[in-house]
Amino acid sequence: MLQTNPMQGCRPLSGAEVISIAETFCRQERFRDICLFVLGVSCGFRVSEMLGLRVRDVFQDGEVLDWIIITEPKTGHVRQVELGEDDKAAIGAQVKALRLDGLYSDGTMLFRSRQGRNKAISRVRAWQIIRSTARGLGMDGKIGTHSMRKTFANNTYEAVLAMGKEDALRVTASAGGWRSVDACERYLSFRIEPQRKAKQVNTGQFGTLPEPGRVRV
């Protein structure tokens, strides 16, 4: 059974929060940040996996690829991830922005830093981008780069549950590249919906609770 302990660390984002952050990046034409956010939420990539991507890993022969091959930096584990239309649009916009800035080549880092030579932004900078944007929009709680992956995990788990045909934990673990179902379960430990539903079902079990009609001494 899925654990329902309160989440530790970064929290996932709601659908409305995802839209707000994405719209902020789009309005400010921050194409690199849009791409990072979309791939993080839509594909569930670890931030270290995304920051290792070069243009050639996602864009060849004038087109965005249908699949990305991701290598986990720490373990060397390789998995293939299919890209959706939103993912392709975000990648295409970032590649075009790099070209317009005169920075395009097959070897250019997809999430290239604006500071000097061809290198990706740091993990700290990626965290700052997500956190500061969320804070600027008035979002509370612990929000950072892990929020993207947790949002992906939560959305995938919910979608598979709704289909009701497969083991939701197993499918989510496979989709996000978790090493085991147990590891994925721990990652989803922030889910407390079953507790909330139990509270709702049992509301009223004590009958009509009294209210004091006057100050008691």
Q: Could you tell me how far the N terminus lies from the C terminus, measured between alpha carbons in angstroms?
A: 49 Å
Q: Quick one: CATH class of the domain at 15-141?
A: Mainly Alpha
Under CATH, the topology of the domain at 15-141 can be stated as hpI Integrase, Chain A
Instruction: Pick out the low-confidence regions.
Output: 1-7
Overall strand count: 4
The number of helical segments is: 10
Structural class: mainly alpha
Helix content: 40-55%
- The residue-averaged pLDDT reads 85
Cα gyration radius (Å) = 21 Å
- What oligomeric state do the depicted chains represent? single chain
* Silhouette: globular
Keywords:
217 residues, mainly alpha, hpI Integrase, Chain A, two-stranded antiparallel ribbon, 4 strands, globular
What does this structure look like?
The protein is mainly alpha-helical and 217 residues long. It has a domain of 127 residues: Intergrase catalytic core (hpI Integrase, Chain A, Orthogonal Bundle), CATH 1.10.443. Helices cover 51% and strands 6% of the residues. It contains ten helices and four strands, in the order ααααββββαααααα. The protein has a two-stranded antiparallel sheet with strand order 1-2. Strands 3-4 form a two-stranded antiparallel sheet. A hairpin with a 6-residue loop joins β3 and β4. α7 runs antiparallel to α8. The longest helix has 19 residues. The radius of gyration is 21 Å and the shape is globular.
